[in-house]
Amino acid sequence: MVNNQLELEVKSFLEGQSDFANLPSSEITRLSQVIRKKKIRQGQWIFDQEDEFEYVFLMKEGHVKLFSMNLEGDMTSVSYIVPQMVFPLRGILQGRKYCYNAVAMCTSEVYILPIKEMRKIIVHHYAFTMAFMRRMEHRLHRSEKLLEKTTCSSAAQRVRQVLDYLNEDYAQTHGTVKKVPFKIFLKDLAVLSATTSETAGSVIKAMKEEKKVLYNNKIISFI
Question: Per its UniProt record, what Pfam families does this chain match (predicted)?
Fold first, then answer.
């Protein structure tokens, strides 16, 4: 009974996705039988950079941070996964190892699909593949939009522009403010802005004094 309920839940989720919905019903049924669901605690790692690329994840609830590190252990990139997203996308066609670390930012739920199954449907189902490419194109557009906001020579201005990006892409309305629904650490804001944590912190302090943002318990709210 539990397995049947999970299969129905997974089928409903897949049918609600613009790309998976293009699969034949028989294929959706088959996938619902191989997909697992997992609840992940806040702070729990989902996979490590350089782990074998064995699974792709579909975000059901919660938020996940993806980030990469260089050989010196410094964080070089960071991005955020919200419900309905598929991750990771980089390497999904033929990558052998994950290019990122993934950690849950709150109690989250994901569906886990073996990468061999994902690659199989990409190869054999044209309509799905075209729709999945549109998903990837949308993510690329978001990445380009962030890149455009970090070309300014002023580090402080880059931080402000990245905050604008976070407001546009992630913030949700709560009464009279818009709030990013997950924690943004100063070191993450610094990486996104290609600057230092000290500069990111000073910009946040200035914007608080300008009554443009609130920053409590690592949660950013836009006034």
Answer: cNMP_binding
Q: Are 2-147 and 149-222 the same fold in CATH?
A: no
Domain boundaries, the chain: 2-147, 149-222
**What does pTM read for this prediction?**
0.92
Name the fold adopted by 149-222: Arc Repressor Mutant, subunit A (1.10.10)
Architecture of the domain delimited by 2-147: Sandwich (2.60)
136-189 pLDDT per residue, tens:
999 999 899 888 878 889 999 999 999 999 999 999 999 999 999 999 999 999
Write out the DSSP string of 63-128. -EEEEEE-TTS-EEEEEEE-TT-EE--TTTTT-SB-SSEEEESSSEEEEEEEHHHHHHHHHH-HHH
Question: Which tens digit of pLDDT belongs to each residue from 111-137?
Answer: 999 999 999 999 999 999 999 999 999
